[in-house]
Sequence to fold (409 residues):
Amino acid sequence: MSDAIKHECGLAFIRLRKPLAHYQERHGSALYGLTKLYLLMEKQHNRGQDGAGVATIKLDPPPGTAFIDRERSTAKNAIPLIFGKINQGISTAIAKQPEAATDAELLKQAAPFMGEVLLGHLRYATFGKDELENCHPRRRLSNWITRNLVVAGNFNMTNVDELFNLLVSIGQVPKERSDTMTVLEKIGHYLDMENERLRAIHHQLGYNDKQITAIIEEKLDVKSILQQSAIDFDGGYALAGLIGHGDAFVLRDPAGIRPAFWYADEDVVVAASERPAIQTAFRLTTDQVNELEPGCALIVKKDGSFAVERILEPLAKRACSFERIYFSRGSDADVYRERIALGRSVCPAILEAIDHDLENTVFSFIPNTAEVAAYGMLKELEDELDRVKEKRILELGPTPDPAKLRAIL
Fold:
């Protein structure tokens, strides 16, 4: 292991499963995906104190048009700044083509960031420089649509030197040693190999190059690409990737060091670092949001179909304790229950410290985030008081004195 695990970033992924016109008709706006991405990121904004980034991919782009859009910022108000620029670009496009305001497909062609595959990242860096180039998402571009790769994640690889040397050993000359770039190029290498494998097979079957590109879009084996790439990864990671034609994935490390949650319905497939962010953005209950199991990947194909696939065998679960505490939210069901239990657990020590004198003790809490634990503490103290009352009432015998009974109650 070459480095300690230090990054605690945030991830937000949305795949729109239907044409933009559907969201304009059903939800009142073709910007539905961008609006939800903004909410997902804002609900995790405490993870983005050192910058943020957004990337989108448009499905089935006409040749000669941009289909990958990206905006990043290292400003303290990175999220509103990024979405302000995105909205400005869309407004400019509508000003040039007013009919695009009510025509979702025309807006997709005319404006940047009107893609069906969306990825957001929030950077909280305790390692690395606060420079724009260190902000995710990172891109690996190509004129071959199925070789384009966009990656973002909450990760820190502990064997960066080993991964770098593996890239060198296959003939690459990487331009930097960062864990982000080595991960991008490692996955990119096997993405290239999968493209070449499918192209060779279908050339032999008599298909021409244009036909083969369409076949690759359908048959690209994302699971195999991830299995070959991730076998050498050592560290904690929740990693998302977008492939140029529209396939996408979210991959979690086999020890479950980094958190990842997902949700899917007929309209969307969503993933994020925090369950409450998904719940709030999409108005869901706790049981509707799934934890992505360690060593698994949520894979979404271009046609909108999805599956959770086993990529690596799970290890003993070692969720990052710092991340669990520092980024925990009282609105998360598990965290709420843990804080209630924590408050209850401190009561024996409190009762001993005050010599069980509840009548002359004032209870409060600091800071505001301790409110739930304080509530748990008070519930346990109330239960203890009930037990004391019960004991004293029983000691009064079968015909208690009314004045003594009232005093106890």
About this structure: The first helix runs from residue 20 to 27. Confidence is low (pLDDT under 50) at residues 1-6.
